[in-house]
Design a protein that fits this description.
This protein has six helices and no strands. By secondary structure, the protein is mainly alpha-helical.
Length: 114
């Protein structure tokens, strides 16, 4: 079954209906058990399963630990909150401050080399 295409699209359609949560729970639990599960995991983070407790816990965990997590996962979380920007405002602020700090550090290193 083409998980990247057809299954993903079906999950997006049903994200706003309380579908059986076991598939979501299973994907989150098995995210480290190989490329296929990680691919599914990464993609379900793009779908707003706000009613699913496992999904919400995972999104919260990733948001709280954004600095140590894969940037693609954080980008997926930001995408699901595009219509509720207040929910990720602090996260975005922290990310932008960190980026600004790294940019200043880079500039300082560059000027020291000259």
């Amino acid at each position: 079954m083409d998980w990247g295409g057809i299954v993903f699209q079906c999950l997006q359609i049903y994200a706003y209906h309380n579908i059986d949560s076991t598939i979501i729970d299973k994907i989150i639990r098995k995210k480290k058990e190989g490329k296929d599960f990680y691919f599914q995991y990464k993609n379900i983070l793009k779908i707003p399963f706000f009613y699913n407790q496992s999904w919400m816990k995972e999104v919260t965990r990733l948001s709280n630990n954004w600095y140590y997590e894969d940037n693609n996962l954080i980008a997926n979380i930001l995408l699901i909150y595009k219509n509720d920007k207040k929910s990720v405002q602090n996260l975005c602020y922290d990310i932008l401050k960190k980026m600004e700090k790294k940019q200043v550090e880079f500039e300082n290193k560059r000027h020291k080399k000259k």
